């Protein structure tokens, strides 16, 4: 009987074919044995520019072109390999020290083996993406070698060999082959470059040595480099951790996580709950997690229950028994205050929970016990497993107090704590040799691991951003913290720009294809109104009376979709960036400058492509008709809000342009009234403007923004255009229109605020509908205190949901509503230069009016959902970054110029402090009891009436909403080296 | 297939019957009564299956068996495992107890016959043909007889493996295929591997994705299976002779044909038995098979054969009762004349058949040994 199986003897090509067998578990619970045949070939090139042999055999594309070889013919040399070398890192090298490979000072000519790339992908998707990014960058010369498909480098798994061992062997074999292969190239210049394996696995290194393969551990290799000392900090010290672990193997600080299968079973059965872990901004030991099974968030209290979860992680929790349910804390706990005397080096001598933490907990318990009102207790939970870590890179600075004397001088490796900028992130233990250099710097680190026996997560340095409080470092820190893409646009993106550059003009001949289906609106009196110094002018307006007594009103939006075609590199980049980010002194553009500030920008006196929405309105601002068209316009003037206002107010100006602005203003007021009648909310958030010294752009003063009539003029017409466009694209694409919605807030969101208003002021907050809310907000007036109404509005805004982009097919129609604007349907259309959503809306509208064919990308629901998800996140981050930037500059403006006697309002009260809002600066600050006087006064907190009465060293009584006078100054915390705004209570 | 007619004349049948009745019997292919036809076998012929085997008999019949396993949710059986509802998902502490060795929760392992689905395909026969269905029933009956097999498919109280056995005869049925199919199934099951379970207790099962780490359905130690699937042997008797693995022609003259399924007895004392060097065999099921001999037309002695006319009568010199319309009457056994067997098998013959099968060092024993030698690569 001839065997049916393939064997080496019977089949001459058997050596070219191999197979891979593995078990695949599908999401639906199926478990399958998968057999894949692997066809081995010999024409996969080594991609070294030295190699002639591969040049001949390497596969060519249909045009007969060869993919250019990647690896340099003159690679850098080191002490050990003076002839030059190529690097072949193994999987762990990438996993543990990806930051190293991204360095620009070293790590060029790297061979990424396919097996390594696959392993990296299985272990960590973010790292994989970074690695792929590296292989795509031209200057780093990373080459992916498909060792698993090349006959010479393929290895069969031996009997009883683990997958890891087999893969390690494959790596060694590839290194060996490369070495031998390159040795044959025989360069005239002399020796062929060495091919060096990089690994941190001792066993692998030993075997490589035995087989005569050049290999080096990461630390040894980095040690040979020029700035090796600095780079050494980027290698997480695995060996060291092993030693520590041995020392106290049976004493773990944190409970073990449950196995993945247990977690999944529990979650499916509804016994465990999965969600995103959030840390309270006021108390680092209090986390919360929203899970679908409970209407309110579950509390996670204490270090042990939080069990190594970090803000943003996707975790699985188990609800604790009812007798352990608690109230959310009314106390402010800051990590650096409670644990500031910890020593990063010697952890084992300490208790898991520090004395101070314990004391804080005791007080908490006492308070809970005194309370008889059981109803306040909330379900609590503990973390039993982590589904996905959401660790990113964190910006922070080194805690000075943890630096030993020796560390300040020598080059010895020292362990220090890093205090992240984000208060929700725990301190990170960091080993570094450059303590002296890093002190007082903003630095970027990543977390490597958080072991059960380590109180704090361990991380390693990525790079230093610069001195604390320097503008460059702080700005970069901000951008990194909020994940803003701030690198310059890559060449591929810039290649998508029009070739003419700044000389691009609207074609003179109307026969040009660019004019196809465009309305010629060049003779209309169009102008733009924007803030001072605005360069990216998205919108322009016009109005003119019609013979029938009605008005024609036009909103003209920059035609960005003409320049940014779907799915090219520029479109991709813009969709990733999502939005332009405005910082106080800097703007991070979504689109390259050329488009944003010139070709698309509706600059005055030049012809520009636009997308116009033109309505016919009667004198009551009722819309008679609307039409949408691509157009060519010529803006007559670019006003600032102030200029426009002056011109309107100046009765002597009677030219057509000014009159058309007056018409617009008249109509906008009517539109606004209609909107208010419909129940639109006028919400508030403190907005300030930083005045800069023009030369140095140092902040000199802070002012609250003034709102003029012209601001609201532009706003009204933009809202109207957005609403009109939303209706049009939804009609054309009922499933895939990109819209924006603002969900009605759930009533419980307002519980606390309405209770506070009732208790303190006897005011009712009616949250039945947006109309009712708007009305009741209008009634929240304190005749003695004009700011009180704004204060309530600010606080109400914080109870709201945030608006979000969505794809119309994902929500039912009654969920489309924009609560804040009281509009049934809404989208963003008017700022395509700075928002990606608007660009998509432009494309959809263009398709809806038959201007162009529908691009698949604006019709694919899955794609649009992904876009919406991304831009929602980006939008939010951009806002946060902008706010943080203002906060930083306010602090800088106050530097050395403390502002005494500022009015402030109490917006939140804890049992050991309270938060005040200073309207003039738009900032909030925490005043702790211990800041009031020395020694810390005793205090009694009544959560029912929101009052805090102190006694002893200083006697004050503070109420919620109370107006107080504070002194605002900047303060540098000597302990942490952090500068912040400090508030002192002046009176009462 | 039992009705698979052999084109042999009554005289040939009579000759066969006579030679098989000799002591020792003389088989047409010269085999000893307990000798199997030469077999060649290999496993792992279907890379995508969990286990597979291919067996060829020297007469050219050939079969392939593939075993596929799928995860299936166990339908909750109220009464039986009610406590699974509350106690089932003991995360944390409880799971540790579950790690205990097999025997402790062996009792809770309850299999169900529905966890095995077997289909037999014979070229030229419909899959709902009675004989095909009967073959599948016989093979699965042996497998399920003692409940031991389905217990192997138990994963936890909520999940089990569902096993699909596809048995295909790829040559025309040149002889009754039962022994071949049983051998092939046996080998395929021996070679069957299931992914290694990583989860514990009653969690949703999670498996090691490394196929090399998968475990044999019949666990093995040092290349030897600790226990083995059952075998179904085809045995027939002619007179008092017991003949194993009959060829088609032999079956055509069988007095009685039995399908005897034999398994290894599972006893706690198994290790002790192994020391003695034997295995405890256990009878799982016995089925009688209708041998084609019963349907073969009987032969007529020349003396009574009217076709030979008077000449025959003269030669016989015997007074024969005249035969109206040439109908063959029942008659005494005549040497050299084929007479289809009538009536059931004799109890004594049956008993000795079974004895012979279970005999220590007998055919079944030898067969088990021989199959052990097949490489399960």
TrEMBL record, chain A:
It comes from the Eukaryota. InterPro entries: Dis3_CSD2, NA-bd_OB-fold, PIN-like_dom_sf, PIN_dom, RNase_II/R, RNase_II/R_CS, RNR_Ribonuclease, Rrp44_CSD1. It holds the Pfam family PIN_4. This is Chromosome disjunction protein 3. Its main location: cytoplasm. Its cofactor is Mg(2+). It is found in: Cytoplasm; Nucleus, Nucleolus. Keywords: Cytoplasm, Endonuclease, Exonuclease, Exosome, Hydrolase, Nuclease, Nucleus, RNA-binding, rRNA processing. GO terms for cellular component: cytoplasmic exosome (RNase complex); nuclear exosome (RNase complex); nucleolus. One of its GO terms (molecular function) is 3'-5'-RNA exonuclease activity. Residues 518-851 form the RNB domain. Residues 85-206 form the PIN domain. The keyword DNA-binding does not apply. Belongs to the RNR ribonuclease family. GO terms for biological process: CUT catabolic process; nuclear mRNA surveillance of mRNA 3'-end processing; rRNA catabolic process; rRNA processing.
UniProtKB/TrEMBL annotation, chain B:
The keyword Metal-binding does not apply. Keywords: Cytoplasm, Exosome. GO terms for biological process: exonucleolytic trimming to generate mature 3'-end of 5.8S rRNA from tricistronic rRNA transcript (SSU-rRNA, 5.8S rRNA, LSU-rRNA); nuclear mRNA surveillance; nuclear polyadenylation-dependent rRNA catabolic process; rRNA catabolic process; TRAMP-dependent tRNA surveillance pathway; U1 snRNA 3'-end processing; U4 snRNA 3'-end processing; U5 snRNA 3'-end processing. GO terms for cellular component: cytoplasmic exosome (RNase complex); nuclear exosome (RNase complex); nucleolus. InterPro entries: ExoRNase_PH_dom1 (IPR001247), Exosome_comp_Rrp42_subfam (IPR050590), PNPase/RNase_PH_dom_sf (IPR027408), Ribosomal_Su5_D2-typ_SF (IPR020568). Pfam families: RNase_PH. It is found in: Cytoplasm; Nucleus, Nucleolus. Residues 35-81 form the Exoribonuclease phosphorolytic domain. GO terms for molecular function: mRNA 3'-UTR AU-rich region binding. Residues 96-105 have a biased composition (Acidic residues). Residues 75-114 are annotated as: Disordered. Belongs to the RNase PH family. PANTHER family: EXOSOME COMPLEX COMPONENT RRP42, EXOSOME COMPLEX EXONUCLEASE RIBOSOMAL RNA PROCESSING PROTEIN. This is Ribosomal RNA-processing protein 42. It comes from Coniochaeta pulveracea. The lineage of its organism: Eukaryota, Fungi, Dikarya, Ascomycota, Pezizomycotina.
């Amino acid at each position: 009987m001839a065997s049916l199986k393939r064997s080496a003897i019977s089949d001459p090509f058997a050596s070219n074919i191999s197979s891979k067998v593995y078990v695949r578990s599908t999401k639906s619970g199926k478990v399958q044995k998968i057999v894949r045949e692997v066809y081995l070939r010999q024409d996969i090139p080594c991609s070294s520019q030295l190699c002639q042999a591969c040049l001949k055999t390497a596969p060519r594309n249909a045009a007969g072109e060869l993919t250019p070889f990647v690896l340099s013919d003159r690679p850098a040399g080191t002490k050990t390999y003076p002839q030059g070398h190529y690097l072949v890192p193994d999987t762990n090298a990438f996993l543990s020290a990806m930051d190293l490979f991204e360095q620009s000072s070293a790590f060029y000519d790297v061979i990424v083996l396919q097996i390594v790339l696959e392993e990296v992908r299985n272990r960590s998707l973010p790292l994989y993406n970074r690695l792929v990014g590296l292989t795509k960058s031209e200057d780093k010369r990373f080459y992916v070698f498909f060792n698993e498909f090349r006959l010479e480098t393929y290895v069969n798994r031996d009997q009883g060999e683990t997958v890891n061992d087999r893969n390690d062997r494959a790596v060694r074999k590839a290194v060996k082959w490369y070495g031998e292969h390159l040795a044959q190239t025989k360069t005239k210049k002399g020796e062929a470059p060495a091919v060096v394996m990089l690994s941190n696995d001792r066993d692998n290194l030993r075997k490589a040595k035995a087989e005569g393969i050049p290999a080096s551990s990461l630390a040894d290799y980095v040690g040979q480099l020029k700035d090796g000392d600095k780079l050494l900090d980027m290698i997480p010290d695995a060996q060291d951790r092993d030693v520590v672990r041995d020392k106290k193997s049976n004493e773990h600080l944190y409970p073990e996580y449950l196995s993945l299968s247990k977690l999944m079973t529990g979650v499916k059965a509804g016994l465990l709950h999965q969600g995103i872990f959030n840390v309270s901004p006021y108390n680092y030991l209090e986390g919360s997690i929203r899970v679908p099974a409970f209407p309110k968030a579950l509390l996670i209290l204490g270090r042990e229950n939080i069990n190594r979860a970090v803000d943003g992680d996707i975790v699985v929790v188990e609800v604790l028994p009812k007798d352990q349910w608690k109230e959310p804390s009314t106390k402010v706990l800051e990590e650096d205050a409670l644990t500031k005397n910890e020593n990063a080096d010697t952890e084992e001598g300490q208790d898991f929970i520090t004395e101070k933490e314990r004391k804080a907990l005791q007080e908490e318990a006492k308070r809970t016990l005194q309370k008889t009102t059981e109803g306040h207790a909330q379900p609590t939970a503990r973390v039993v497993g982590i589904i996905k870590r959401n660790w990113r890179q964190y910006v922070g600075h080194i805690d000075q107090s943890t630096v030993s004397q020796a560390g300040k001088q020598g080059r010895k490796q020292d362990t220090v704590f890093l205090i992240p900028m984000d208060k929700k992130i725990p301190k990170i233990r960091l080993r570094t040799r450059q303590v002296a250099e890093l002190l007082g710097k903003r630095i970027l680190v990543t977390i490597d691991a958080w072991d059960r026996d380590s109180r704090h997560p361990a991380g390693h340095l990525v790079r230093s951003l610069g001195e604390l409080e320097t503008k460059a470092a702080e700005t970069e820190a901000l951008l990194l913290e909020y994940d803003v893409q701030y690198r310059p646009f890559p060449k591929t993106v810039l290649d998508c720009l029009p070739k003419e550059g700044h000389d691009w003009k609207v074609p003179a001949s109307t026969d040009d294809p660019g004019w196809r289906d465009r309305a010629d609106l060049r003779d209309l009196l169009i102008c733009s109104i924007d803030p001072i110094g605005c360069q990216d002018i998205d919108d322009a307006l016009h109005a003119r009376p019609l013979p029938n007594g009605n008005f024609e009103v036009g909103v003209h939006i920059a035609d960005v979709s003409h320049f940014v075609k779907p799915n090219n590199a520029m479109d991709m980049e813009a969709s990733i960036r999502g939005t332009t980010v405005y910082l106080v002194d800097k703007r991070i553009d979504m689109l390259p400058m050329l488009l944003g500030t010139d070709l698309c920008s509706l600059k005055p006196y030049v012809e520009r492509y636009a997308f116009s929405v033109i309505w016919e309105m009667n004198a009551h601002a009722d819309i008679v008709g609307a039409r949408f068209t691509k157009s060519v316009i010529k803006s007559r003037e670019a006003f600032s809000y102030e200029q426009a206002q002056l011109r309107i107010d100046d009765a002597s100006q009677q030219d057509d342009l000014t009159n058309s602005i007056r018409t617009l203003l008249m109509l906008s007021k009517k539109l606004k009234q209609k909107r208010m009648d419909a129940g639109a909310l006028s919400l508030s958030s403190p907005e300030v403007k930083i005045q800069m010294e023009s030369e140095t752009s140092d902040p000199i003063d802070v002012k609250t923004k003034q709102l003029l009539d012209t601001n609201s003029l532009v706003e009204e017409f933009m809202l109207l255009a957005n609403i009109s466009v939303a209706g049009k694209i939804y009609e054309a694409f009922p499933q895939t229109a990109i819209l924006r919605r603002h969900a009605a807030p759930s009533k419980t969101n307002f519980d606390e605020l309405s209770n506070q208003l009732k208790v303190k002021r006897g005011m009712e907050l009616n949250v039945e509908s947006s109309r009712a809310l708007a009305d009741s907000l209008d009634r929240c007036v304190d005749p003695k205190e004009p700011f009180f109404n704004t204060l309530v509005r600010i606080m109400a805004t914080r109870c709201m949901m945030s608006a979000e982009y969505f794809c119309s097919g994902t929500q039912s129609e009654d969920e489309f509503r924009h609560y804040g604007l009281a509009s049934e349907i809404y989208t963003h259309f008017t700022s395509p230069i700075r928002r990606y959503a608007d660009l998509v809306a432009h494309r959809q509208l263009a398709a809806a009016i038959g201007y162009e064919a529908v691009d698949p990308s604006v019709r694919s629901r899955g794609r649009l959902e992904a876009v919406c998800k991304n831009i929602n996140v980006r939008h939010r981050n951009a806002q946060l970054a902008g706010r943080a930037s203002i906060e930083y500059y306010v602090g800088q403006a106050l530097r050395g110029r403390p502002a005494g006697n500022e009015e402030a309002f109490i917006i939140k009260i804890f049992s050991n402090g309270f938060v005040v809002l200073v309207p003039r600066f738009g900032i909030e600050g925490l005043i702790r009891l211990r800041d009031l006087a020395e020694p810390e006064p005793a205090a009694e907190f009544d959560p029912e009436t929101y009052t805090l009465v102190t006694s002893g060293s200083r006697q004050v009584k503070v109420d919620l909403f109370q107006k107080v006078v504070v002194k605002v100054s900047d303060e540098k915390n000597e302990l942490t080296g952090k500068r912040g705004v400090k508030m002192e209570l002046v009176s009462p | 297939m039992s009705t698979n007619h052999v084109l042999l004349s009554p005289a040939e049948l009579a000759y066969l019957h006579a030679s098989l009745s000799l002591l020792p019997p003389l088989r047409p292919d010269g085999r000893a009564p307990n000798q199997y036809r030469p077999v060649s076998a290999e496993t792992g012929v279907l890379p995508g299956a969990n286990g597979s085997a291919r067996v060829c008999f020297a007469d050219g019949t050939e079969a392939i068996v593939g075993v596929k396993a799928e995860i299936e949710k166990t339908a909750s059986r109220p009464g039986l495992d009610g406590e699974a509802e509350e106690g089932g998902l003991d995360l944390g502490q409880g799971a540790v107890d579950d790690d205990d060795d097999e025997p402790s929760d062996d009792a809770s392992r309850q299999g169900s016959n529905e966890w095995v689905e077997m289909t037999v395909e014979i070229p030229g026969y419909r899959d709902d043909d009675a004989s095909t269905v009967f073959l599948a029933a016989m093979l699965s009956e042996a497998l399920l007889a003692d409940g031991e097999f389905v217990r192997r498919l138990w994963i936890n109280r909520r999940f089990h493996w569902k096993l699909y056995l596809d048995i295909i005869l790829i040559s025309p049925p040149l002889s009754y295929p039962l022994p071949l199919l049983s051998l092939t199934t046996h080998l395929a099951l021996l070679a069957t591997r299931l992914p290694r379970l990583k989860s514990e207790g009653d969690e949703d099962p999670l498996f090691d994705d490394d196929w090399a780490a998968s475990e044999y359905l019949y666990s093995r130690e040092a290349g030897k299976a600790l226990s083995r699937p059952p075998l179904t042997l085809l045995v027939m008797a002619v007179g008092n002779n017991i003949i194993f693995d009959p060829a088609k022609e032999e079956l055509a003259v069988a007095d009685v044909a039995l399908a005897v399924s034999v398994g290894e007895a599972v006893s706690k004392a198994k290790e002790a038995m192994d020391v003695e060097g034997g295995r405890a065999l256990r009878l799982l099921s016995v089925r009688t098979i209708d041998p084609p001999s019963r349907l073969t037309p009987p032969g007529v002695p020349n003396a009574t054969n009217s076709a030979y006319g008077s000449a025959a009568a003269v030669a016989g010199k015997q007074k024969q009762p005249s035969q109206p319309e040439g109908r063959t009457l029942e008659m005494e056994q005549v040497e050299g004349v084929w007479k289809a067997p009538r009536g059931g098998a004799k109890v004594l013959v049956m008993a000795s058949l079974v004895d012979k099968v279970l005999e220590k060092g007998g055919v079944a024993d030898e067969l088990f040994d021989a199959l052990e030698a097949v490489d399960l690569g």
